[in-house]
Design a protein that fits this description.
mainly alpha; Arc Repressor Mutant, subunit A; three-stranded antiparallel β-sheet
């Protein structure tokens, strides 16, 4: 039994993968096969004929899993800023467990790769400047990102000074009237649109009152 236990963890071969650079296939005498990156192999040297304990093999596979998580996170962040909560959710959907994800995110946090404040500023600016959304709609969009309320409110307060809600309402109304007219029917549709966009009635009413709405 002792001999068989050792054989199940003995490395038979380590071969470079043909289609994936910096990746190697490790085959054990037991027939177990797994992939490993060149980076992990450099920091954890392995040789054919080497025998690994069960604990060492488990540790090696965990290091490889976390390396793959790191690569995925950096790839996601290369496209755009993302919140920590968003990245955590995406990785869990890919089948990774939280015990492996969190240490990777913590390390990237400490190195400044992930920054919820920078993400919140970027995303809020986009929603307000490009999508013309009011505070309530913006907060709803942020609900999945778990940004601290104090931080988000501070960012929104600053942005809505630059982009006053009443000015945004005015622009939306002017554009809509130029296309659809100023009938009472269109006024009701406009109000519904502005509410869906997250504007409060106190932001809407004064602007509506500047127009003489027709029958």
């Amino acid at each position: 039994m002792g001999r068989l236990w050792k054989l199940t963890h003995k490395i038979q071969s380590i071969v470079p993968q043909k289609k994936r650079k910096n990746r190697f296939t490790v085959t054990l005498e037991s027939g177990d096969v797994f992939g490993i990156s060149g980076d992990v192999l450099i920091s954890n040297p392995l040789d054919a004929g080497q025998t690994l304990t069960k604990k060492a093999l488990k540790h090696l596979k965990r290091i490889e899993t976390r390396q793959q998580i790191k690569i995925r996170v950096l790839r996601l962040l290369s496209y755009r800023q993302r919140s920590r909560a968003e990245v955590l959710t995406l990785l869990k959907r890919k089948g990774y467990i939280e015990d492996d994800i969190v240490p990777v995110l913590d390390k990237l946090d400490s190195k400044g790769y992930m920054d919820d404040k920078a993400f919140a500023k970027m995303y809020a600016s986009y929603l307000i400047k490009k999508k013309s959304l009011g505070r309530m709609a913006v907060k709803h969009k942020f609900s999945q990102h778990q940004i601290p309320h104090d931080l988000l409110n501070s960012i929104l307060d600053e942005l809505y000074v630059t982009y006053p809600p009443e000015k945004m309402v005015q622009q939306i109304m002017d554009k809509r009237i130029s296309v659809r007219g100023n009938s009472l029917k269109e006024m009701k549709k406009l109000v519904n649109l502005l509410k869906r966009k997250g504007f409060r009635w106190q932001d809407i009413e004064p602007i509506l009152n500047t127009v003489k709405w027709g029958p």
